[in-house]
Write a structure and sequence with these properties.
Blueprint: H1 21-35, E1 44-47, H2 57-70, H3 79-82, H4 88-100, H5 106-121, H6 132-141, E2 145-149, H7 155-164, E3 174-175, H8 188-197, E4 204-208, H9 211-219, E5 223-227, H10 234-238, E6 244-246, H11 249-260
């Protein structure tokens, strides 16, 4: 890792209209001091995909529940949100370990994940999350690199991502399950994302909606923002280390200028 920049602490008190700005500034300062970073100069924003770029989690929750039930694994729809961000095969191996008491082979888990993918393919097309295209256009205009870091292993979804976010997301700045050996909550996906973007932790922002994804971003040393687009309480995101929690992507979009004003 490159030498850490010299101390140049900044205030992010106006980042959002937070009810306790003093507490928020203290939290940001603690983030910088915890990692020994003296400055925060983002050059890249690393987005999760499902539940962040697409309103796709209801489809995933349904397909996980239906496919796993058919295969003999109990997985309520809400569990999809708890384990979101993990590679699909890792989620299946975890469920089998807990419920069947044995380790699945990679081939077994992949076959089961194929059934989940088949059920998902029959779901209605997920819409792009409201506000995210405008947000990314602003970021792009400000010179930010847009990186997508997803646990997805469905090539059709990754191809669709590039088409839907034409001019914003490029294939060479996507980290998927094909790129990592350990999915979220391990920091490897976000470390790979930074490497692809050519940035250090203090030069990046993570945007997540899932507890395990937040944990991965924080473990990678990156300033992590959560957008709670699902049914989980905000506390599940803040407990994992999310510095900010927005309730909608549009709120994040509307706060971008305030965020950007505090980069230097």
């Amino acid at each position: 890792m490159a030498d850490r920049p010299q101390a140049n602490l900044f205030s992010l008190g106006s980042l959002i209209n937070h009810p306790d700005r003093i507490m928020y500034e203290k939290k940001i300062k603690e983030y910088l001091e915890r990692h020994g970073f003296g400055t925060f100069r983002p050059k890249a924003v690393l987005f999760d995909m499902d539940g962040v770029l697409y309103d796709s989690m209801p489809n995933h929750a349904y397909s996980w529940h239906k496919s796993m039930t058919a295969l003999g694994i109990t997985m309520p729809p809400e569990d999809a949100y708890k384990y979101e961000g993990m590679r699909g095969v890792e989620t299946i191996k975890l469920m089998a370990r807990r419920q069947w008491g044995r380790e699945l082979t990679d081939e077994e888990a992949q076959r089961m994940y194929g059934e989940k993918s088949r059920v998902y393919s029959e779901c209605p097309t997920a819409k792009i999350m409201d506000g995210v295209l405008d947000l990314q256009r602003k970021m792009k205009a400000d010179g930010m690199k847009i990186v997508v870091v997803t646990g997805s292993g469905q090539r059709s979804l990754l191809d669709k991502l590039v088409r839907d976010f034409d001019g914003l997301v490029s294939p060479n700045l996507i980290v998927s399950s094909f790129d990592v050996s350990r999915g979220k909550p391990d920091p490897e996906p976000y470390l790979k994302g930074m490497a692809k973007a050519g940035v250090e932790p203090w030069e990046a922002i993570v945007v997540e909606n899932a507890p395990l994804g937040v944990r991965a971003g924080v473990a990678a040393g990156i300033f992590t923002i959560a957008v709670n687009t699902g049914p989980l309480p905000d506390s599940m995101l803040t407990d994992e280390g999310a510095a900010v929690v927005f309730s909608r992507m549009a709120d994040f979009r509307d706060s971008w200028e305030t965020i950007k004003a505090n980069f230097r």
